[in-house]
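Hey,
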Amino acid sequence: MNTYINPVLPGDHPDPTLLKVGDDFYHCGSSFHFTPYLPIYHSKDLVHWKIIGRVLSPEKAAMVTDKPSNGVWQGAITYFYGSYWIYFSSGGQWFSKADLPTGPWTAPVRVTENPKTGPLGYDNSIFVDDDGKPYMVIKNGQKVNRLQALGRDGQLTDSVINLDWINAKLQYSWAEGPVMCKRNGYYYYFPAGDVSGGQYVLRASALTADSTKWERLGNFFKPSPDPANTFPRPNHIAAPVQLADGSWWTIGQSYQHHGKDDWSGMGRQTSLYQVIWENDRPWGMPPVSTPVVKPALTNNKTPWRSVHSDHFENDQLGDWWHFLTKGAAAGVSLTQRKGWARLTPDSGRTHLVQKETDHFYSVVTRLELNTKDSAVRGGIYLTNGNQRVFVRLFSELTTNRRIVLQLDTAIRSVPYPQGKTVWLKLERYEHQLSGYFSTDGKKWQAVGAPISAVPLDKVQPNYNSWVGTSVGLFAEGGLVDFDLFVCKDGFSLLPAIGNSNHYGIQTIHADGDQLVTNSSLHGGWLMISGVDLGAAGAAKAVEVMASSTKGGVLEILLDDLEQGERIAAVPVKAGKISSHVYRLRSASGKLSGQHDLFVRFPAGTSQDILLKSIRLLTR
C-alpha cells in the first residue's frame, strides 16, 4: 500500500501538534472538555495512528474548567533536555513531563507569567532550535504573537522576542496556533487564520523582533485541483518535520463539507500533507480527496484509526474511551460485574463514549437493565459536544416496556415485553440512522423507519463547543450493565463506498445504488477500516453483493494489501446485482477481533465488477 486518503486521523482531532523522535512520531492536540485529557497518539508511518496513553486524569485536573468549550486547549507535545513535555492551556499555561511518551506524566506545573512577557495565551507551541534550545511560541488574543526561551525547569527564561507586528492589522484574522521550524538557516513561522481556515508562512534568517528582517511569504497551502475535495481550507498545522529521505511532512485540521453535504459536526479532522520547498519557500501540497503517495516509511501493523470494539474484559478502560464531564467517570465500573461495563448515573444521564470516525458503520451492544429502577433507560448514544443534539437507541422499563430510537422530536418505538436483556444495533448510512433490536444478536427487527442525522452532522452553534461527535453508551434513571460494544460490526452490511482508503477505483451511481468499481486495468483496491469479525470462529463465510459483465474474482485480505492474509477469493458471476457467498479460509486459525478489510479487484479489465457491499456470515 503506497497511497493513503485523508484524513489520517478521522473524527475530532483539533489543533494537532506533531513530534518526531528517532523513527517514531507522536501527536497530541486540544482535548477541550473531553476527559481524561490529552491523549497521546503514536505512529511509525504518519498514516496509521493509535492512542498510547493520556496525560491528564480528572484527579490531577483541578485547574480545568469542566464545561463545554473550556477544558484543556493546545496539547503541544515536544522533546527537549532529555524528556518528553506537554504544554497546555487551562486558565494559564501548564506543563507535564515524562521519560517516555506512554507516561507516567508528572503532575501539571504552571508556567510562571511576568509583566514583560504578558499573558501566555491559549494556543501556543514549542520550537526547538538546532542547538537544542527550546522556545515557547506564544499566542494570546488576536494581536499578541511572541517568543521566549525555556529553561531546563520548563519555565520561561531570557528576554521575550516581541512579534506583535505580525498581526497588528489583523492580516491573518486571529493568527492563531503558530508553529515554527528551521531549514537551511531560515526560521519559518506558520500562523493559522481562524477556525474556518487559512494557513500562512513567514521567514527570517535570525530569531529577531525586527519586522524588517522577516518576509511574509503568503499562503502556505497550494490551491486544491480537486473539485470533489471535502476538506477545504486546512490550517492549524503542526510544525513540519523532515524524514530520513529528506522529505518534509505536516498534519493539519479541517472541517469536512462539500456543497450541501455538511459533516462539520464531526469536528476538525486531521490530514497529512507533504511539504515541498521552492527556493527555500515552503508549500503545503494541496488538499485533495483522492489518493496521495504516502511517506517512505513502514507501518508496524498499526490499524487505521477507527472506533474500538470493547468486550470489557479488563479492569480498566482502554485509552480510546472518554467522558464529556469529569464526574461521568465515577459512574462507570468494570469490576462490579466481571466482563461487563456497569453504568450507574448519580442523577440525569451518564455515558461512555469515543470519537466518531466514520460515515458508514453499525454499533452493536447487549445490555441488561436493573429492574429495580422503574425509570431506567440504557443503550447506544451519539451526541454533539455539549449534549444538546443527540441520538439515543435505548431500552426502557416503563409501564409499557419498549425500544426507542430518538433524535429530538423524531421518535421511533416498538414494544419489547421479553425482559430486561436486549441486543441493540444502531446503523449509520451517511446521514441516515436506523435502529434494530434482537433477543439473540442474530435475528434483528427494525425500530421503525430511519431518522435523519443531519441536525447532528451539520455545523453546530459555537462550532460544536470546538469538538466533534462522540459515539458510545449511556444510562439514565438507574443502573445498566453492558456486555460489549462492537463497532464496526462485520455481520451487518459494509457498504463499499464506506471505505477509508482506496486506489484505482471510482464510485458509480446506478439504479439508486452507490457502487464501487475499479478504474484501472491493473485492478484497484479499497479498504474498510476496523471491521469487527466477532468472537473466534464466528465468521464462517462472506457475502458480496455485486454485479459483473464478464465475471471475475474479488480477493479479500486482512490488515495489509501485500502482506496480509487472504481469507477469501469470491467468484462474481456475470449478471445483475446479486449475492455471492464464499467460505472464509484462514491459515492462522479462527478469525476474530477488529481488522482492516481489503478488497482487491482483478487486473486485466476495468469497470467490470460493480461492488455494493460486503457482509460476514455465521454459516
